[in-house]
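Show me a record, fold above all:
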Amino acid sequence: MHLVPYVPSRYADIDELVEVASIIEEYDGIAAAHLRHVIGIKEATEEFVEVGKKSGAKIQISHLKSTCPEAFDVVKDAAEGGLRVLADTIPRSSGHCTSKSRLHQFIMALSDELFAGGVEGVKAALKTPEGRATITKDAYIFAGDKSDKYVILSEDPSLEGKSVKEIADERNQDPDETMLDLLADDKDYTFWLGGPTRPDFPPEGHSQSIVENPYICVGTDRIMGDSENPYDWYELQRRGGFPVFMNMYLSKGVPVEEIVRRNTSMVAKHFGIKERGELKEGTYADISVIDLEAYDYPSPEEADYRKPLTVASGVETVLVNGEIALDSNGLNNPYSGKVLMREKNK
């Protein structure tokens, strides 16, 4: 049920969402959704809460935006009213860095007219005025003057690190036409859509009402790119979601034990993951040993777009299923994990 705003899910009305969620409820699964933000963040949250109420399914509000504290209040009120609901939120984000080929796919997913034609249809549309008009109509990546959209890791060194707006000015072009030309040519680029910071992730962090909401956990919304190519689609802050969340909430008065609970046992119970999320006899030993004084992640000013695999500092040892997976020498046992089976929470 994820990705409600995109083709083809965007065509579903609330009755269809309830029908799908009702099937999920039969198996005590979880209905999770990227909300339909176009109707408003609070309104989209209320819509999906209504799906949970009408279907009886557990629901997960995915990467709820902290710019709307009222939406978090909707989650809290629903949970305290008996609905099985949690929300996760991304504490800090840069713009996405995406290869040209993946951006073609994303444009396809945003367009009613282009979806059926696939990626080749997008490439064909880039070659005609009519097709280009279709792309710019539906793809919100064309919003604004392109001063926050950069070309990086470029096959053409003269474009490296420049915004699309700068390139357009050099070419005496409209920025939309420049963006379309870059998408249509035969050179390889990575597009940094939004740059190092985003206005929907304000630097002051979460409001106190969000911080004190006991039904909120961290989310990273990591995009899975090509496993062989870390530059396929990546983002520069979300790999640090846990240390950023930890440090933000500690600074706003939440005890470390409560922060850990929200991101371990609370989540494991909600998702029906048996014998995990708690440190006690008889449970699986999934343990991170963290030096809180050193637990951190590079800020937007410190992050380097050439390093998509940056990890947090301060993580000393990680055990997965009782085996040391990571220690001071680096990755120790990458195969200690396994597929997790859930149990019903009814």
In short: The chain has two domains: 9-92+200-274, 96-193.
